[in-house]
Amino acid sequence: MNRQIVRALAEKDIAEVAQNRIAISGAIILSVIFAVVFPLLITQIPVLLPESDQPAFDDLQELIPPQLIDELAELSPEQLPIVLILGYLMAPLFLVLPLMLACIIAAEAFVGEKERKTLEALLYTPATDGELFLGKVLAALIPAIVYTWVNFLVFTLVTNLAGYPVMGRFWFPTPSWLALMVVVVPAVALLGVAVTVIISTRVRTFMEAYQVSGALVLVILVLVVAQSVGLLFLSPLVAVLVGIAFFALDAVLIMAGIRTFSRSELIARV
Question: I want to staple 140 with a disulfide (CB 3.0 to 4.6 A). Which of 54, 105, 229, 259 is the partner?
């Protein structure tokens, strides 16, 4: 495996992604919604609602996992929804960011080359099939992870600053969020990349690849629902275990993708 070739392929695709209007516009919209709008709205609940309408601990108890009851019971009615929603319920939903951006970029991996009529020249390069595949994977994986971490920093800043009048302190991020960012985000991004790159070698248009891979959002929705109804508590340990499970699945998909990838078939379809 020639690392320089893999790196060159990844850098070329990353440069092309920076000029992709669909990827850039989609990323901006997701950033505004998840990193700015959500924390601003939630932190303003105590301001927007009169004191008599503030949700009490008993009103939200069904949404609170047993592991957090003692901790959240100490919060005031104004602080409770902020910590519960932003510190707990929002965590798995944030995984939509790396997954969606990874899918958008990876859908461009080979299908985009076909539509731009540049795939044939790429396939005749001296790079091996494995190097081509890994180059495409890295080109989508790295931007998705960096993009999510940047949004997490913005989310942290907005949450702490907008919520400071109510919370009286900087309380975010929590240990669970840190474990999610360090372990689960790369694993979820790699899952989206691996599946989408495999799909993009078998379809003819960008939209086909993106629509099929978009079904992966259901995986995130399962985590969101499980956490919301109390079936799953993403503590730091559980987050690490979920990340390891995703990484194991990623490894299987990457190996399968490398084994099944064939430039001869792609050349025949160009």
Answer: 105
